Amino acid sequence: MERECNETTDERELLLADAGAAVLGGREEAYGSAEDSFSRIASFWGAYLAVDIAPRDVANMMVLLKVARTARGGHRDNWVDIAGYAACGSAAEFGGGRHGE
Q1: What is the rounded CA–CA span in Å between residue 60 and residue 40?
Q2: Of 73, 72, 93, 89, the residue nearest 81 (C-alpha)
Q3: What pLDDT digit, counting tens, does each position of 12-23 carry?
């Protein structure tokens, strides 16, 4: 969902808006809440590795996966995904609702 920058927006705003659209929009409809998904992934990874993994660890490891992909120059969608995983990690650690609710 890439858009062009204009006089009132810059790439940071556009990237964060795109990340927000990804984590708050169609992906949740298709896959369920990020919190539930990250909990399920943590259970699978933890069982496979025989260690405890928390949903926030899933977010951190997904960010690291995207960082590794940017090592060769990457694509903009990797940066969008990093921002999205950061938002999901924050929700996993501090609660899924709006902060302070």
Answers
A1: 15
A2: 89
A3: 999 999 999 988
> What is the distance between the alpha carbons of residues 39 and 96, in angstroms, rounded to a whole number?
12
> What is the distance between the alpha carbons of residues 30 and 79, in angstroms, rounded to a whole number?
22
Nearest-angstrom CA–CA distance, 55 and 95 = 11
Locus of tokens 């660890």:
57
Dihedral sign computed on CA atoms, order 17, 18, 23, 26: positive
Q: Using alpha carbons, select from 30, 31, 60, 33 the residue that is nearest to residue 45.
A: 60
The model's pTM:
0.81
Strands (DSSP E) found in 33-86:
none
Residue position matching structure tokens 């928390």? 54
Cβ pair 90, 55 in contact under 8 A: no
The answer, yes or no, to whether residue 64 has pLDDT greater than 60, is yes
